[in-house]
Design goal:
Helix content is 43%, strand content 16%. It has helices spanning 6-31, 36-39, 79-96, 113-123, 155-166, 183-186, 203-209, 212-233, and strands spanning 59-63, 73-74, 77-78, 101-103, 127-134, 144-148, 173-178, 192-199. GO terms for molecular function: N-acetylmuramoyl-L-alanine amidase activity.
């Protein structure tokens, strides 16, 4: 029997050493509270799922924060109140258009991020839309953007479709933002986008966001964005596709 060469043995020893090091690092991370999803974020990719068995909502509307978690605050104005107001306006329009939906919350209730993901994944919807407001230490910062998971093949596209509607709000267009580590974008099993509608820390945006008519306008554009996305990716489930 031919003995392996010295070079082959060195290569084998090097490979075994690398494997042992990687295993040690992996074990250390797991023992210190890191999950597989944290260690391998690129494995967490939300794509359009196959049609689920039985009825499922076309879209889930997630009003950010709630309950004891106010989100951004400016004086007496709390993000959780603004996001809920917009989400409830979205719900009205979805009902009118007979578009199937599910609300993560429709009152001032705290829902953990883990529960939001669990609910969304169990509902097996086709699209997850999370509504938020921004805030920053620089009060000059303002505008609207759509965040997406850059590891999703469809994430940037659906974010762009939605942002093209949000541009009609008359706010500064902050365009798209890849946010791979946002919980609701990473761990949903369907495509997800997160809308940052205005800055509560900016006087001009704050005035708009607390105006009922503007909240209705936000809802109208969000629903048009949902219809645009549906028309491209799941047209059979949303009959009332948006018309320009």
């Amino acid at each position: 029997m031919k003995r392996p060469s010295e070079r082959s043995l060195r290569i084998l020893i090097a490979l075994l050493s690398i494997a042992i090091i990687l295993l040690s690092v992996f074990t250390f991370l797991v023992k210190n509270g890191f999950s597989i999803k944290d260690i391998f974020p690129k494995a967490i990719v939300s794509e359009f799922s196959a049609q689920p068995e039985g009825p499922a909502p076309a879209v889930i509307i997630d009003a950010g924060h709630g309950g004891w978690e106010p989100g951004a605050i400016n004086g007496s104005i709390q993000e959780k109140e603004v996001t809920l107001a917009i989400a409830l306006e979205v719900e009205k329009i979805l009902k009118e258009k007979d578009i199937s939906y599910f609300m993560i919350r429709n009152d001032d209730t705290y829902v953990s991020l883990e529960d939001r993901i669990k609910i969304a994944n169990e509902k097996a919807c086709r699209l997850f839309v999370s509504i938020h407001n921004n805030s920053y230490t620089d009060p000059a910062q303002r505008g609207v953007l759509t965040a997406y998971n850059p590891y999703s093949d469809t994430g940037k596209d659906i974010a762009g479709i939605m942002q093209s509607r949000l541009e009609n709000l008359g706010m500064r267009n902050r365009e798209l933002m890849p946010r791979p580590n946002l919980y609701v974008l990473r761990y949903t099993s369907m495509p997800s986008i997160l809308l940052e509608i205005g800055f509560l820390s900016n006087k001009k945006d704050l005035k708009l966001l607390t105006d009922g008519d503007f909240q209705q306008k936000c809802a109208q554009q969000i629903v048009l964005g949902i219809e645009d996305i549906a028309a491209k990716y799941f047209p059979d489930e949303v009959k009332n596709s948006a018309k320009d």
